[in-house]
Structure formats: structure tokens, C-alpha cells
Amino acid sequence: MQATRSTGSCSEAIGADSIQACHTTENFQPAVYVKQYYEYLGDENLAILKFLWRQFQRCPEDADMLDFGCGPTIYQFIAAAPTVRTIHVADSLVTNFEAIQDWMAGKPDVFSWREYIRETLVLEDPAAVSSADIRKREQLIKQKIARFLHCNLGGYPPIDGVAKASYDVLMANYCLEFLPAHIDFEAGMSEILSLLRPGGRFIFQFLRRTPDYPVGDHRFLCRQIDEDDFLRILPKCGFLSPTIEYEIVEAEAGLQRPYESFVMMAASKA
Ligand SMILES: C[S@@+](CC[C@H](N)C(=O)[O-])C[C@H]1O[C@@H](n2cnc3c(N)ncnc32)[C@H](O)[C@@H]1O
Fold first, then answer.
1. 255 CA → ligand 1 middle, Å
2. CATH number at residue 69
3. Predicted confidence band at 168 (pLDDT cuts at 50, 70, 90)?
4. Distance, CA 92 to ligand 1 centroid (Å)?
5. Nearest CA to ligand 1 atom 10
6. Is residue 5 in a domain?
7. Regarding predicted confidence, which is higher, 11 or 183?
8. Number of domains in the chain
9. How far apart are CA 270 and CA 267, in angstroms?
10. Which residue has the least CA distance to atom 13 on ligand 1?
11. Residues 6-14: contacts with CB within 8 Å, 24+ apart?
12. Is 14 part of any domain?
């Protein structure tokens, strides 16, 4: 067993393996994260794009959408942008907002997401997709991102100044598993889900039964959750059981992912 010493919210491993276990995300490095998990657009990320495309085909027009725990990524807005009226993004880290804002400003050296846009456009219409089509979708995403909000997963309320039932679409991708360990999972989820209006759609993804999520040389500790947790919690939080759908995606062979699988799930509120 390896010795550890505490450095703030991380315990630093002493020895050959210098990866650090963290209880909070203050050491989360946006650019490292994007490179590690999104630089390669393989089967896993294609499955995610396809799932989001299918979800937004059925999304109500002019929806107000919140992405809770947005991170530094853009892929989750590509299929949403033509349908939703506004996108609010929320995270605990300003550095993630800066990554999105750098992309919006077209700064050099930021990840372009163009390959992700191209793949989504091909799903929407398999006819040839041009560079102009991709630029048009980029512009649309930029127009729809209206607010950057500080959020606190496990906080009451999770976003200061945002009332319950404010959104028609609530998205949360690879964030809910970071609910702090001392908070009851159902109570924490219930608080986040209260942000959704009646009739609204909850679209989310999470690592399946995974103890931690490495990003660069830090490991972020996770709740080990699976689809059964949500199949139990969602009806109690006012979601209609027949509207719940989910897919389990196995980690792509050869990528040495730190998880065996992840879950893509969605449900509608009564
Ligand atoms: C693994 S990243 C996921 C980013 C993005 N949603 C995606 O699909 O790749 C997890 C995100 O959750 C955020 N997060 C983790 N714990 C949080 C907390 N307690 N409150 C708010 N956001 C948190 C992190 O800042 C980070 O942006």
C-alpha cells in the first residue's frame, strides 16, 4: 500500500505513482481534461453525440436549458443549440467558464470541437456537411449561451439566485457522481432536480460504479452510482417512469479508460 500525505483537499501519493486523490475539484485542469477525454473522437464520444442528438429531436421548442457542471466542454450544446432558446452553464470553477469563453472568442490554441460539430450535423442530415455549416452551428451555440452561473453540487440552493422550476431542460454530464460523500445522494439529487419545470427533460450522463476520475496527475473521488440509483430516485422526485430511458456504454478497448462503463440517461418530469 502506498503512503500518502495531505495537501489541502488532496492526499499526495508518495512513491512511484504520484497521482493525487482529491475530494474537491480545485485542482481540475480544463485543458488537460479536454485533451484526455475528448481529443479522440472514437466510439465512446460518438455514442454520446448520438444520444444527445436523439434527445434533442424530442425537446420542446424554445426551452430554457441549464447545464449543471458544464466543465470546459462544448459537445453537449451542439445538438441542443437549434432547439433551445437559451443555455445557462453552471460550474463551481471559473477556469471552466474561461475555457468556454476562450472557445467563444475564437482564441488560438483552444480545442476546436469542429469534429464533434461535423459528426452531429451528419446525424441531423447525412448530406454533405460544409465548413460553412460548421461555422454556422458554432455561431448558434455562441448566441445561445446566455449566462455563466456559479453552482454548488450538494449546496442548498445549488445555484444562488436561481429559483426552483426555472428550466425546461436540465443537463448534467459527468458531474453528479461528485456529490460530496457526506450528503445523502437522494437528497442531493432532489435539490438539483427541483431546478426543472414540470414537463421538463432531465438529460444526464455519469461514470458507472467508478471510485475516481483521473484528470492529469489528480484523481477526483466519485460516488459509485449506477442506473438503479436513478431508477429509484427519479419517480420519487416527480419523474414519470415510462419516460425514463438509459444506455450503458462500455469503455472503448485500447483507450485505458479509468472506468469500465458509463451511463447516458434521460427522463421527463410530470
Ligand atoms: C468530469 S467534469 C465534467 C465536465 C463536462 N460536463 C463533461 O461532460 O465533460 C466534472 C465537472 O463537475 C464540476 N463539479 C465537480 N464537483 C462540483 C461541485 N461540488 N459543485 C459544482 N460543480 C462541480 C467540475 O468543476 C467539473 O467541471
1. 22
2. 3.40.50.150
3. very high
4. 7
5. 175
6. no
7. 183
8. 1
9. 10
10. 69
11. 10/218
12. no
